[in-house]
């Protein structure tokens, strides 16, 4: 196994991780920003007002994007299994 192929596998694994995590985190960050602007505009300093919408948004993102996330991981896994002969040989 050459170092270049190991670097390519590692790079692809990192890109899959970034895609999966960003699909979950970005909607929560957007809702958190909207709630923070609302709190700053109204001077409400309630911690649960910030936490609950982000939690619900993350759960909804997992519910609606779960199939896509699993499919991305399965595609990566199948590609890695198919590369075993090239890496070993």
From TrEMBL:
**Protein family per UniProt:** Belongs to the FliQ/MopD/SpaQ family.
What UniProt keywords apply to this chain's record, in alphabetical order? Cell membrane, Cell projection, Cilium, Flagellum, Membrane, Transmembrane, Transmembrane helix
**GO CC terms:** plasma membrane
GO terms under biological process? protein secretion
Location (main, coarse): membrane
Q: Which Pfam families match?
A: Bac_export_3 (PF01313)
Keyword Magnesium recorded: no
* Protein name as it appears in the record: Flagellar biosynthetic protein FliQ
Originating species: Shewanella hanedai
User: Which InterPro entries does this chain map to?
Assistant: Bac_export_3
Membrane topology per the record? Multi-pass membrane protein
Localization (cell):
Cell membrane
Q: Where are the transmembrane segments?
A: 12-38, 58-78
């Amino acid at each position: 196994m050459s170092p270049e192929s190991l670097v390519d596998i590692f790079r692809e694994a990192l890109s899959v991780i970034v895609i999966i995590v960003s699909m979950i985190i970005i909607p929560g960050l957007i809702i958190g920003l909207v709630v923070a602007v609302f709190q700053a505009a109204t001077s409400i300093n309630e911690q649960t007002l910030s936490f609950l919408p982000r939690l619900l948004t993350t759960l909804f993102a997992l519910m609606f994007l779960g199939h896509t996330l699993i499919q991305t991981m399965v595609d990566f896994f199948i590609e890695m299994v198919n590369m075993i002969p090239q890496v070993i040989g």
